[in-house]
Amino acid sequence: xxxxxxxxxxxxxxxxxxxxxxxxxxxxxxxxxxxxxxxxxxxxxxxxxxxxxxxxxxxxxxxxxxxxxxxxxxxxxxxxxxxxxxxxxxxxxxxxxxxxxxxxxxxxxxxxxxxxxxxxxxx
Length: 123
Description:
Elements: H1 11-24, H2 37-44, H3 48-60, E1 64-67, E2 71-74, H4 78-102, H5 107-122
Helix pairs in contact: 1-3, 1-4, 2-3
């Protein structure tokens, strides 16, 4: 199976984002083992070196820890998970607002659109 990646952003950064989303949604929690580099490469249809680069960044940023003989494990407290969730939400919101500004949509219209969307989802 391959994944549809955005051509405007390096794949390893997109893999980092995918795994951070998994951490935030608690699909992977503190102490859980990550799949092997090879398995992730096959799953997403990417080069194993790309996965290794993404996983190394997650290690460097303290989200995971690599143990030489047993694999790579999530090291994320609930407090850090919530902080990551807020950080990602702010970034996604900023990206969204930037795209709306590029379309020439004003804040009041964005609020109206979002307000209407919320009512449609609850019906």
